[in-house]
Amino acid sequence: MTEDIYSLITHPDRQSPEDVLTAAIDHYGDRIGLAMSFQIGGVVLLDMIHRIGRRVSVFSIDTGRLPEETYTCAERISQQYGIEIHWVFPRHEAVETMIRKKGLYSFKVSAENRKECCSIRKVEPLTRALGAYDAWITGRRTDQLVTRKELKVIEDDPVHPGKIKINPLEHWNRDQLWEYIHAHNVPYHQLYNEGYLSIGCECCTRSCKGETDERAGRWWWESPEHKECGLHISYQGGSGI
Ligand code: SF4
């Protein structure tokens, strides 16, 4: 952990997400990136960065199974903020081998298969993308999931040793994000209008009207304790990289 950035980010005078973003971007310069999956946290962070007059490189992982609405959202955001999104793709050999051996829907068969698919389509590309940075910014929040209750605004990345994760929205809730989006006319993913609370791959995400658990629509066939894809925690047993 780099002590000076840790003190900088957690300083009592630096409570707002904008303050955290300013300190982190000024500290890391072009060695920090914003991970974007086009969910509400990510678009709010991008808008905040725009408003504080900073620029940051934005990257996104195209798993090959994203919904069409994710691409249209990406285009709108790219045009509105005048940014280029750095898309990162899985290694095609790994995807082809998995599909040849296990079929197109292996992730529905077992948690182990699901983690293998997330590992190939998400975790490995993320690891490659992070090679360009010392730190990355995420839209994660403590109220999203049982596995995120201990989230801190700045933390060592347990999956990518030596990298720092900055979570400026750690103490925000979903209502605050929507208030910000409407107040600032921020473009957002259209699947939210269809009852989605969280958005990922098309085949592993569904609408969940009436639910309060934000991740209820993700891997709905699994228990809540397992609803991480390996981007933020290492899987037990070592298969999650
Ligand atoms: S969310 Fe589903 S389709 Fe996407 S990488 Fe994970 S298991 Fe595969």
Written overview of the protein:
The protein has 241 residues and is an alpha/beta fold. It has a single domain, classed as Rossmann fold, CATH 3.40.50. Helix content is 36%, strand content 9%. The chain is globular, with a radius of gyration of 17 Å. The C terminus is likely disordered. Iron/sulfur cluster binds next to helix 6. The site of iron/sulfur cluster has 13 residues, from helix 6.
**CATH-assigned fold name:** Rossmann fold
Name the helix and strand elements from N-terminus to C-terminus, one letter apiece.
HHEHEHEHHEEEH
Number of domains: 1
Name of the CATH first level: Alpha Beta
Average of the residue pLDDT scores: 89
Q: Structural class, judged by helices and strands?
A: alpha/beta
- Main beta sheet: 6 strands, mixed
Q: How helical, in percent, are the residues?
A: 25-40%
Q: How many H/I helical runs?
A: 7
CATH architecture: 3-Layer(aba) Sandwich
Counting DSSP E segments of at least 2 residues, the number of strands comes to 6
Radius of gyration: 17 Å
* Anisotropy-based shape: globular
Strand content: 5-15%
Q: What's the name of the CATH homologous superfamily? A: HUPs
Outline the secondary-structure elements:
Layout: H1 3-10, H2 17-28, E1 32-35, H3 40-51, E2 57-61, H4 68-81, E3 85-88, H5 92-102, H6 111-129, E4 135-137, E5 154-156, E6 164-166, H7 174-184
Parallel strand pairs: 1-2, 1-4, 2-3, 4-6
Antiparallel strand pairs: 5-6
Residues 63, 65, 107, 114, 117-118, 121-122, 200-201, 203-204, 229 line the site of iron/sulfur cluster.
